[in-house]
Each structure stands twice: as C-alpha cells, then as structure tokens.
C-alpha cells in the first residue's frame, strides 16, 4: 500500500533534514537523518493518519529508507527534479556521509503536528548514532517482515503503510501507543484513502 495521501513533500523533507542537522549541532550523518525521519513519519502516521513527508518507504539492508528523502540527500537528479535539489542546496551542503546545515529551518512548511513528530523523533532517538539506529529499525515490523528477502539478496522492497500500525519488539518505542479501537479506525481510513487514490489514478 503506497501512501494514500498527497505526493512526496520535498519542502518538508528538506526542512526535516535541516531540522535534525541543526539539532545535531549543524552536521548530521545521512544514515542517521534518514532513520530519524522514519521515526517521525511513523509517529505521525500512527497518531494523525498521515506521514510528515508523504514519502515512499522501502525496506533495504540498512533498514527503512524514505525514497525521496534519500534522493535529496544524494542530490540524485535521475529521480528528482533539479529544482528540488537546488531548493535543498539552499539549506544544507552535502559531504560524503554528512549533511551540513547552512540556513535556519523554515518552520513555516510544517504543521504543529509535524513539529511534534520531529521533536518526538529527536527526543526519543536523537541520542543514538547511525549504527545504533539502523539496528533499532530492524526490530520494527514494517521492515522485519522483509528480512528473509533482504538477507537472500533482494536490494529493496516497498513497505506497506498498514504495517506501521503494528507493534515493534517490546523493548522499543512504538512511536505513539495506539489503543486497539484507534488502530482499527486509522487502518480503515488508510484503506479508504488508498482505494480513493487507486480509483483516481
């Protein structure tokens, strides 16, 4: 199930990268920022029934990867428009493994709930390094269900957003605790939107 909402929001993705770079003192590892955005998106989807970034997620060897965000980090013009790369380059520079913030975060692109989710991800997971975060994400069901295929050599598999509503290993933060009734309602809304998007397409 692809994200049944609007298309990828490169403004929010760019500013989320910049937000976490600022929180990290101005520089952040690319892998770490991808994982932090995953946790922010998971929290927001579970609590507010949409992602912050509206990105597409794939299970890969190093855990969940937000496709559009990765393309921004890599400045990959094969998959995203040059205008998006140019916009993001106004806010941070890219090095081999790091992103270096060059401007203040444009908070105007975010809703209050977006900022709540980014704050949650930083407050809960910001203390970990990129390797720790990679390992932690492997205990979340939306990635873990694809582990056998990844271990067998499959490079990437698109993740299903309904799996974001499943619970991780009990040792790890679920990114917003859902009551069973709330979970059923959110899943029903997700399915309705997916069907509406499919009919529109």
Descriptive overview:
By secondary structure, this protein is mainly alpha-helical. It has one domain (10-200). The protein is 50% helix and 10% strand. The chain contains 9 helices and 6 strands, in the order H-E-H-E-E-H-H-E-E-H-H-H-H-E-H. It has helices spanning 10-23, 30-48, 67-74, 82-89, 112-125, 130-137, 141-144, 147-151, 180-200; strands at residues 27-29, 57-60, 63-66, 92-94, 98-101, 157-158. It has a 3-stranded antiparallel sheet with strand order 1-5-4. The radius of gyration is 16 Å and the shape is globular. The two termini are 14 Å apart.
SS elements, strand count: 6
Assign a percent range to the helix content: 40-55%
The average pLDDT value, as a whole number, equals 93
Q: What Rg do the Cα atoms give? A: 16 Å
Largest sheet: 3 strands, antiparallel
Summarize the SSE layout with pairings:
Elements: H1 10-23, E1 27-29, H2 30-48, E2 57-60, E3 63-66, H3 67-74, H4 82-89, E4 92-94, E5 98-101, H5 112-125, H6 130-137, H7 141-144, H8 147-151, E6 157-158, H9 180-200
Antiparallel strand pairs: 1-5, 2-3, 2-6, 4-5
Helix pairs in contact: 1-2, 1-3, 2-5, 2-6
Features:
single chain, mainly alpha, 9 helices, globular, disordered N terminus
Write a compact overview of the structure shown.
This protein has helices at residues 10-23, 30-48, 67-74, 82-89, 112-125, 130-137, 141-144, 147-151, 180-200; strands at 27-29, 57-60, 63-66, 92-94, 98-101, 157-158. It is mainly alpha-helical and 201 residues long. The radius of gyration is 16 Å and the shape is globular.
């Amino acid at each position: 199930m692809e994200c049944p909402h609007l298309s990828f929001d490169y403004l929010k993705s760019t500013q989320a990268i910049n937000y976490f770079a600022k929180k990290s003192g101005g520089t952040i590892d690319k892998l770490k920022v991808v994982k932090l955005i995953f946790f922010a998106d998971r929290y927001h989807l579970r609590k507010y029934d949409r992602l912050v970034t509206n990105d597409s997620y794939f299970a890969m060897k190093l855990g969940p990867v937000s496709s559009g965000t990765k393309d921004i980090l890599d400045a990959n013009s094969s998959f995203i428009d040059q205008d998006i790369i140019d916009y993001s380059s106004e806010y941070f520079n890219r090095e081999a493994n790091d992103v270096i913030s060059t401007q203040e975060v444009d908070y105007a692109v975010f809703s209050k709930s977006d900022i709540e989710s980014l704050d949650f991800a930083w407050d809960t997971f910001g203390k970990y390094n990129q390797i720790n975060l990679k390992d932690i994400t492997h205990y979340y069901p939306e990635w873990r269900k694809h582990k056998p295929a990844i271990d067998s050599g499959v490079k990437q598999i698109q993740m299903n957003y309904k799996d974001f509503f499943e619970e991780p290993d009990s040792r790890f933060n679920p990114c917003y605790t859902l009551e069973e009734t709330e979970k059923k309602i959110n899943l029903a809304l997700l399915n309705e939107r997916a069907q509406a998007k499919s009919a529109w397409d």
